Amino acid sequence: MTAPQRLTQRKREAILAAAIAEFRVNGFEVTSMDRIAATAGVSKRTVYNHFPSKEELFAEILNQLWASSVAQLDVSYAGDRPLREQLRGLLEAKMKMMSDVNFLDLARVAIAATIHSPERAQDMVNRLSMREEGFTQWVRAAQEDGRLTCADPAFAAHQIQSLLKAFAFWPQITLGQPTLDAADQARVIESAIDMFLACYDADTRRPQ
Fold this sequence. Notes:
The chain is mainly α. The protein has two domains: 1-52, Homeodomain-like (Arc Repressor Mutant, subunit A), CATH 1.10.10; 73-205, Tetracycline Repressor, domain 2. The chain is built from twelve helices and no strands. It has helices at 3-30, 33-40, 44-50, 54-70, 83-98, 101-114, 118-131, 133-144, 153-168, 170-174, 182-200, 202-205. The radius of gyration is 20 Å and the shape is elongated. Residues 32-51 bind DNA. It holds the Pfam family TetR_N. Residues 9-69 form the HTH tetR-type domain.
């Protein structure tokens, strides 16, 4: 990487760090691109060169938080590995993201920002849904391999992820409950897998 490229990357990282701090403290509506620029120590024009809108900047922050939680995870389906083992890896990555304090704080900001703006809400939902597409692809691959019996892979993927959110996301977002400890995280994950496989595992549902 050349010196100008390194400088550009440092400015981008400074903008993201400043935006995270401002969004967490002041919320989405109050935070301005001017304020983000001042906190990052760059010009407003530099901020817009990297991110054309506040919505784009916020979406990138959420995307990075998601990406950091699954960076080391292979989400591709493996026909020679137990389904439970693969599901556990996928759900542990999801749980890691939902236990991240930054992610929870920004999720609260996102929800507050979308209450009065259906258009913004739909845009953010669409962006986050795209980040979860890897889970749906895994379910679809297992279905096509004859190991899962679900008729709608997207529905099944949403179903199992919702089991985690019911314990490890929504109570923390809406009621201010603490994040789950390691033992409770493992219990929620294993229970979700049990329910999912009881419903969709082809071997379990095959007549004896």
